[in-house]
Structure formats: structure tokens, C-alpha cells
Design brief:
Blueprint lengths: L14 E2 L7 E4 L8 E4 L8 E4 L9 E3 L8 E4 L2 E6 L8 E2 L4 E3 L5
Length: about 100
Amino acid sequence: MSIQAAPAAPPAGDALVLHPYDTVATALRPLPAGHTLHLTRGPGHSPLTLTLPESVALCLKFALRDIAEGEVVTKYGQGIGRATRAIGAGAHVHVHNLRSGRGAG
């Protein structure tokens, strides 16, 4: 006999911040340019209000604040790579402006 856990309910809201010190969030639905988000970073952290300058597709990352060129980008509370150019708050974060730290020698 196998025991299966009940499926977890999907997170509610527009985006998910995985760790209070993350510099990116993940879109939980397609988000249009001009959309204003009200995000919670966790206990003891101030809520964040952010208006997206560009659309962000489902499950993609966007910057929670301005990120300088060369700065480590954090998700899950861990560095996931470095910004290859300045990234404005609310901008989509992906291979066009982020160099992954995985596999880099």
C-alpha cells in the first residue's frame, strides 16, 4: 500500500517571493506592463509595491528592485547568477540580462 500526499494548493496572488532577501520574484500568472503588485517578503519585512514596466510571462522572474550590472541576483535566498547589465525594478530577468552561476568554472 502506498501513501500519497494530497496535492498542495497553488500559491495565491500575482507573484511569489521565495525568500525575504531575494532580488527577484516569480510570476504566478501572465502580468501585463503597468500592472502594480503588492508583495509580501515575509515576517519582519515591509510590504513591497512595484509597478511593472514591461509584461512578464507566467513562471518567469522579474526584479524586485534595481539590480546593478555585475551584482549577484538572488532567488531561494541563494545567488543564481550575476546581472550582465543593469536591471530596473520590475524588469524581466532571464538569459538576456543574467549569467547563470551554475556550471561556471
